[in-house]
Amino acid sequence: MSSPHPRPALSDGPGPFDGLGRLDLALDGGALTARLVDFPSVSGDEAALADAVVAALRPLPHLSVERFGNNVVARTNLGRAERVVLAGHLDTVPIADNLPSRVEGDLLYGCGTSDMKAGVAVQLRIAATVPEPNRDLTFVFYDCEEVEADRNGLGHLARERPDWLHGDFAVLLEPSSAVVEGGCQGTMRVVVRITGQRAHSARSWLGDNAIHGAAELLGRLAAYRPRRVEIDGLEYREGLNAVLIDGGVAGNVIPDLCTVTVNFRFAPDRSEEQALAHVREVLAGFDVELTDSAPGALPGLAHPAAQAFVAATGGVPRAKYGWTDVARFAGLGIPAVNYGPGDPNLAHKREEHCSLAAITECERRIAAWLTG
Amino acid sequence: MSSPHPRPALSDGPGPFDGLGRLDLALDGGALTARLVDFPSVSGDEAALADAVVAALRPLPHLSVERFGNNVVARTNLGRAERVVLAGHLDTVPIADNLPSRVEGDLLYGCGTSDMKAGVAVQLRIAATVPEPNRDLTFVFYDCEEVEADRNGLGHLARERPDWLHGDFAVLLEPSSAVVEGGCQGTMRVVVRITGQRAHSARSWLGDNAIHGAAELLGRLAAYRPRRVEIDGLEYREGLNAVLIDGGVAGNVIPDLCTVTVNFRFAPDRSEEQALAHVREVLAGFDVELTDSAPGALPGLAHPAAQAFVAATGGVPRAKYGWTDVARFAGLGIPAVNYGPGDPNLAHKREEHCSLAAITECERRIAAWLTG
Q: What pLDDT does B21 receive?
């Protein structure tokens, strides 16, 4: 993209975002991203943006559009042999004095540019410009991805409208620097409680120091060699780490309790049960309590639609380490990957930005896959 | 004490502590303790009790009485070869629904009975009943012992009126179950900061886990064998303990900081400098910062006045492990011991109480030492 992106006329109206009630899907991907960014849609406050998405998609005759809360699902019904899902979340983390958007050269700055309104813009552009795709398409726009798991709109759809999500393969347009990221690792947290006997520290031999009791636990974690495993050609690297520790009563008391929270990130060839059994084995002898857990997702790159997608996007797929909503699709039996124009390292940062050229290129490759 | 102690007529007046403005030093030690207990004097609120102490001592012709804030010092000036100090604090920890005092058999219950109004009663009784002691006497009644060190009345006197505290030997009438407790151990706290590199826990190899870095530190502390050392025939037992630990940012972040507070209780043959050097040696390689320190006090039992005191009290002296104000006397060059009728294990407890017979016996032994 060689010409500078026209900055939206944000200062013309009485309010900062007036006049942006309409999304013009004829805009190029970069300009459309800027429009989307200038709809503030912090988690829980996505209604106006969902309204605009519905209003933009409803006029398209090749799509049927449905809404559940602030989740919007649009589908082609062309009777194709395969159906693929293109999914993205509408919400952003809280605004950090980084709205409205602004352009510097090829870069569009602003809250949600990378994570993930650039991806949503690509979804909308494909919806508008590929009326006769070679695979049936389902576009999913959902809310509350950036907050507690039980508010996640994709989770709500999976429970309340699972048929809307049906498909053979899913692409989540989360920022991945335009590289296919396959599957995702699972994650679980356990709390280890080490107990002792309280005593005045002037008579420490009358007590049993629970913090000292953590030495063995931390020693095992420090010595732990995490597994590296290859699945569908992608390498996953696990990790077992103390992430929080807390112990002690006062400066003159031998502590009777030390609590360590341990996070296990596990490759998707382990189930949650297997992962917990492994943690219990490593931490044998300690009081281990599971506090939360989310399964991983296998990359699913063996599926024909996935292979065609990888071929069309042209890159070398890599493993996804962080937990993402592809695991929700995996839970529905739908292989899924992350593929989006943003840079994941910029997500949630004040200086968040996205390359305008990358947005256009991402759209071009997905369109090629769906029309080739 | 064979006859039951007469319970003060606390319920006669309109308010719970009415009619108690005067301390009758002709009462026996138990009854006087009850009167003192029924003057609430939580730290910072000792003025009324200090007034009463001054009013009770001023009429005694063998004493000169001085006051500094809520600290009262009374002295004989008989030109004896030795001067001994009898010291006690007027304040108590907060009342825990345990006032007014009450008697059950030989036991007087109430806030401050053991720590240390029984000791103060003994001081007052000696002041009133031993007008011609064989050693000159200095009685010190001070405030704010139960709170932060910089509010301590004995510390204020040591800085502002050091000449009032002059003496050859001091007895602090803190509860010691009527056993001479010699000297006290020193105490210091250091904070150890273990740093690392923050990273998302899904990519833990990009970080450096500071909590895991604490394994080596805690291992050294757990393996540490504290010294036992005999001084003046008393055995001191040291202790080096982690008392607080804190680390971690969030459940999905490799922590870049873990902070461990370590408390060293050291025998009084080490200076603070030597104690700190020892801690630094044990924790070599770690970032150790001294946060607070208080010196120990040698038992000083070689002094003739101390030897006579031990002989008069008749027990076998033992080492004092906790830090007490005897260290302040040691800092002024005055050997000091703890010796008082209360049970130190009952201090600061709701069910705090003191044996009435023990109060009388303590008074009798000290009087014997000073008149023998």
A: 66
A interface mutation test: which of B243, B257, B262 has the most A CBs within 10 A? B243
Which residues in chain A come in under a pLDDT of 70? 1-21
| ipTM > 0.95 for the complex | no
Q: Which of B290, B286, B289 is nearest to B215 (CA)?
A: B286
B162 preceded by a cis bond (ω within 30 of 0):
no
- Going from the C-alpha of B180 to that of each of A77, B83, B177, B307, B317, the distances in angstroms are 94, 19, 9, 11, 5
Q: Alpha-carbon Rg of chain A, whole angstroms?
A: 24
**For B263, which of A214, A251, A263 is closest by C-beta distance?**
A251
Q: Hey, what domains does chain A have and what are their CATH numbers?
A: 29-183+297-371 (3.40.630.10), 186-294 (3.30.70.360)
In this complex, do B211 and A202 lie within 8 Å of one another by their Cβ atoms?
no
Strand partners, B245: A247, B260
In chain A, residues 235-294 whose CB comes closer than 8 Å to chain B: 237, 239, 241-255, 258, 260-261, 263, 265
End-to-end CA distance of chain A, in Å?
24
Collect all residues of chain A within an 8 Å Cβ-Cβ radius of residue B243.
201, 211, 248-255
DSSP-derived 3-state class of residue A261: strand
CB A23 within 8 A of CB A55: yes
Cis ω before B188 (30° cut-off from 0): no
**A145 catalytic, yes or no?**
yes
Is-contact B199 B366, C-beta < 8 A?
no
> How far apart (Å, rounded) are the C-alpha atoms in residues A179 and A16?
35
Q: How many CA atoms lie within 13 A of B62 on its CB side?
A: 15
Record the tokens describing residue A277, joined without a space. Answer: 């059994």
- Tell which wins on pLDDT, B122 or B15: B122
pLDDT of A184-234, one tens digit each?
A: 899 999 999 999 999 889 889 999 999 999 999 999 999 999 999 999 889
Containing H/E element for A223? helix A210-223
Q: Is A91 a catalytic residue?
A: yes
- CA-to-CA distance for A292 and A281, rounded, in angstroms? 18
pLDDT digits (tens, 9 = 90+) for A57-116: 999 999 999 999 999 999 999 999 999 999 999 999 899 899 999 999 999 999 999 999
CA distance B183 to B325: 10
Candidates A145, A168, A181, A343; catalytic one: A145
Q: What is the pTM of this model?
A: 0.77
